[in-house]
Amino acid sequence: MTRKDGVRAARRRVGVADTTFARWDMGGAVADELKGRSGAFDVLRVTVPGIKDLPVACKNLIERDGCDLVVACGYVGGAPIDRECANVADHALQHVQLMTNVHVLGVFVYETEAKDERELAWLCDRRAREHAVNAWRMLFKPEELAAMAGTGQRQGYEDAGPLGVDLREHRARRK
Q1: Band of pLDDT at residue 4, cut at 50, 70 and 90
Q2: What pLDDT, in 10s, does the model give residues 44-86?
Q3: Chain centroid to CA 99: how far?
Q4: How would you write the chain as a 3-class SS string?
């Protein structure tokens, strides 16, 4: 693979950006999950204060550090302003992807998703790890993601599953 600077990279680079605002070490969970995966890659991690700092951190991991993909871990507090900040950060992460042509997987956990701290910790850890696996698949096993298309995968809570509808009969009647 050739990086943007023209250098042939023998190893892939996965960036992980997380925040001190988070109440769980989601970036650590991503790095730990990736550590157990095969393939020639390095994990580069950067931690910033808050969710609105993630876009610049991700852009730096891509442009300055040559990351092939970045996992951005954001924790969203329970106040309305926190949800607004998450929306702003998410839009900025979309811009980073468009400006760099590199995927940034947003791993956002909203404090209001869980009923208590135990469930919140579990959700932060599981969502981060499942996104880490998706990042690895995007780089090394894209065919696995293709095989999962339309299966209602969710990161964190239970998968939704595919729709239980068979349109073959419907399409046959339309002719």
Answers
A1: low
A2: 999 999 999 999 999 999 999 999 999 999 999 999 999 999 9
A3: 18
A4: CECCCCCECCCEEEEEEEECCCCCCHHHHHHHHHHCCCCCEEEEEEEECCHHHHHHHHHHHHHCCCCCEEEEEEEECCCHHHHHHHHHHHHHHHHHHHHHCCCEEEEEEEHHHCCCHHHHHHHHHHHHHHHHHHHHHHHHCHHHHHHCCCCCCCCCCCCCCCCCCCCHHHHHHHC
User: Hunting for tokens 């393939």 — which residue is that?
Assistant: 39
Domains of the chain: 12-174 (3.40.50.960)
Distance CA 96, CA 86 (A): 15
| Per-residue tokens: 42 | 């390095």
